Amino acid sequence: MKRPHDAGRSTPDSQGHPPRPDASSLQDVWSGWTDETIPALFTHLYLFRLAAHMVLPPAELRAIANKVGQLTRDLKNMNDPDDEGTPP
User: Fold this and answer.
1) 41, 68 in Cβ contact below 8 A?
2) CB neighbour list of residue 23: distance below 8 Å, 6 or more residues apart
3) Contact residues for 40 (Cβ-Cβ < 8 A; gap 6+)
């Protein structure tokens, strides 16, 4: 079977770096992409990869997901400029 033409592929720039998608192309796919949703997406993809390759029991996956969620919340709270008070 003949492979289709690679017209949709992009080429690296003159310094060899792959092209970065611009924010508008991400917004075209889903308007909810933000600086918070993209890391969450990759976290979930990583957990699925763990599940597929290591075949972890569901309880362990939930524990990992809970820990990652807590770490994400902690990082967000540490970087929140509006929250200058003491932590709860």
Assistant:
1) no
2) 33
3) 72
Q: Which residues contact 11 (CB under 8 A, 6 or more apart)?
A: 19
Task: Locate 22 and state its tokens.
Answer: 């611009």
Can you tell me the distance from the alpha carbon of 61 to that of 69, in angstroms, rounded to the nearest whole number?
12
Closest CA to 51 of 38, 35, 62, 40: 62
Single-letter residue type at 25: S
Domain boundaries, the chain: 31-78
**Which tokens in the block code for residue 72?**
């994400």
Q: What confidence tens digit (pLDDT) does each residue in 4-39 have?
A: 444 444 555 566 655 555 555 666 666 777 777 778
